[in-house]
Each structure stands twice: as C-alpha cells, then as structure tokens.
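Pipeline run #58 for the internal structure catalog. This entry was flagged by the ingest filter as a single-chain record with no existing model, so it goes straight to prediction. Upstream metadata was stripped on purpose; only the residue string is passed forward. Reviewer on rotation: M.T. Logging verbosity set to normal.
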Amino acid sequence: MQLTSASQTDKHTNVELALEIRGIQKKFDAFIALHNINLSVHQGEMLCLLGPSGCGKTTLLRIIAGLESQNAGHILQGGRDISNLPPAKRDYGIVFQSYALFPNLTIADNVSYGLVNRRANRLDIQARVAELLTLVGLPTSGNKYPSQLSGGQQQRVALARALATKPGLLLLDEPLSALDALERVRLRGEIRRLQQEVGVTTIMVTHDQEEALSMADRIVVMNHGVIEQIGTPQEIYEQPATPFVADFVGKINVLPAVSLGEQRFRTGHLELHCEGCDHPVGTQVNLYLRPEDRLLENISADTPNRLTARVNQVEFLGGSCMAEVSCAELDGQTLSFHFSLNQMHDYDIRVGQSVVLALRATRIRAFALGSA
C-alpha cells in the first residue's frame, strides 16, 4: 500500500518534517529488535539515537537506509513512502564508523564517487569536490590516498563523500567510535558545525552520552527495541522520563525511599521534600539525584533536605572533583557530589572532612519500584 502524508508538519510543533517513522517493527527469528517505533524527524535537525549495545538503534538506522527490511510499519521521507524502496532509490548519504573509503582511489575520486555514478558534469564535479574538501578542512588533500591520512581526516573525507550529492538526509552510524578521545572531541564539533552550516537533516547513532548531549537538537533514548524518551539534551538530562534514562544518561545517585505523601519521602533517617514528585503513602521508590544538584551556601538548621556528609574519597578532575561522601542520616549510604575547584577550596572538600549541604528539592526525581 502506497502511503502519502496528509500533513508534512509536526502537529505539535508546526515544524516541517523530513522523515516520519510509523509503527516500525523488526524481528530476527524470535528476537524482537524493534517494537512499534514511531518517530518524527524535523527538517534540518540533528537527531541522535542513543542507547546501549543491542537496543535497536543501528537496526533502525539500517531500516531507514533500506539496508535492512522491517516486518511491519512505514517510513515516509518528505511525505513520500520509501518503506520498500532499495537503498539506491532513497535520498540519503551515509557515514559508517569504519570510514569505508576506497583505498585505491584518491581523496578527490572518493568524494566524487556518487556524482560520477549520477553522470554529473565533469566541471561541476570538480567544483563540488573542491567546495566539500574546503568545507571539511582538507582543501589540498584531493590527490592523496586514504592511507596517507589520519583516522580523523579519513572520516572527514567520508563525510564529504556523503554530502556530495546534496542528500535530503544524512545518516551517521557511530562515526566517531574508531577515533581516539581527542580526535573524537574535535571532530564532533566539526560535524555539528558542518551540519548546521549545510542545513542537512541528520540522524546519528551513538552509545556515547557526551556525544549525544553535545551534538543533538533532540535525543531519542532507546532500550530493548523501544523508545524510552525523546527530548532535547537538557530535557533528557534534567527530566528523565524513566529509571533507565536517569541511569543511562549522565551520572546519578540512587536512594531507596518510601513515600510519606505530599511530595515527602523517607530514606534512612532523613525526610526529603521532592517538588513535583508525589506517590501514594507507603509506595516504595527510588530517588534519583545528579551529583551537581546540591546546595552549599546559606545552609541553616531548618533548610529543607539538609544533611551532613563526610568525604570518603575525592577524584580530582582538574577544574573540578567528584567526591564520594557518606551520611549518618542515610544509614551510611554513599553519594557522589560534584564540586568546582573553587568550591573545593572554599568548603575544604577533602578526605576526612565533613561538609554541610542540602539536596535540591526541585531536582530530585522519584520513580516507584518496578516502574518502566
């Protein structure tokens, strides 16, 4: 059945849609890789599919590319049903983690490969290759071969090749995972700059939280073949929708507690107020708190969520530290808190010392045990 999109805008945001994924399912024998995936991709955005190995993110990307077929569901690009089209009939460029350059072709020939196959004019090809190599910072590398370039440079070439035909969609399959740490940080900034400069709608697969948080307009957090949450990096980090998202994205403290009602919870000998978190009295929950969500200034005896912490261990990180502390009010449970270098000096954050602080009531998230 051929589908058309009655409206090519997201009804919630009134933003033009580049891609619509409707009810996609994928099985490998008895294993369900994707279960009823629904997703709208906005025109010109950078969308990251984030999740652990085996969560289905790469399978979804391959289905979008036509490299894998779905068992059910439809994909619409610009309102056109591409669900059953072969890869060559779909409008995208793709970059793999392994670069996938032709070792026997020059850099210029690698970049122009798609244009040559489309029988573009030779002078137009030369101009486009020169434009792209300049764009990715390799203007003088056209006559070199892939083996003469570093891993980061090869990935820039792969990116230029993917953009050569001016695709409507750019697919990135963990493009930075084969690079060393410094090159990953450098190249992720360049990819984001290029994506914004060119304006191409981009879907990137990654298992690296930092990459997703720093590069994406929106993040799709996946787990066991389903979408756990979709949101901006700040929404995903500050307002996790499920315990999995809270655990997977960023560092987190988890405290077992019981609800006292009226947004109050008992954990150890401490009663905590958690704004916006309410559960029936007696509900067993886990409280989630980021390491930076504590107050140090103007703490008095009646400050809500006040506690005294003893510093057990300090991990020095340069301009900041991560301190592991234990609290008598919490029956000795340990927590991790993040402090800037100045705070370390101002509040004498070092092993063996005690520090009085308060947990931010607006930043604690409470999930009932067994919740999704």
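catalog note: The first strand starts at residue 17 and ends at 28.
catalog note: The chain has nine helices and 20 strands.
status: ready for reviewer M.T.
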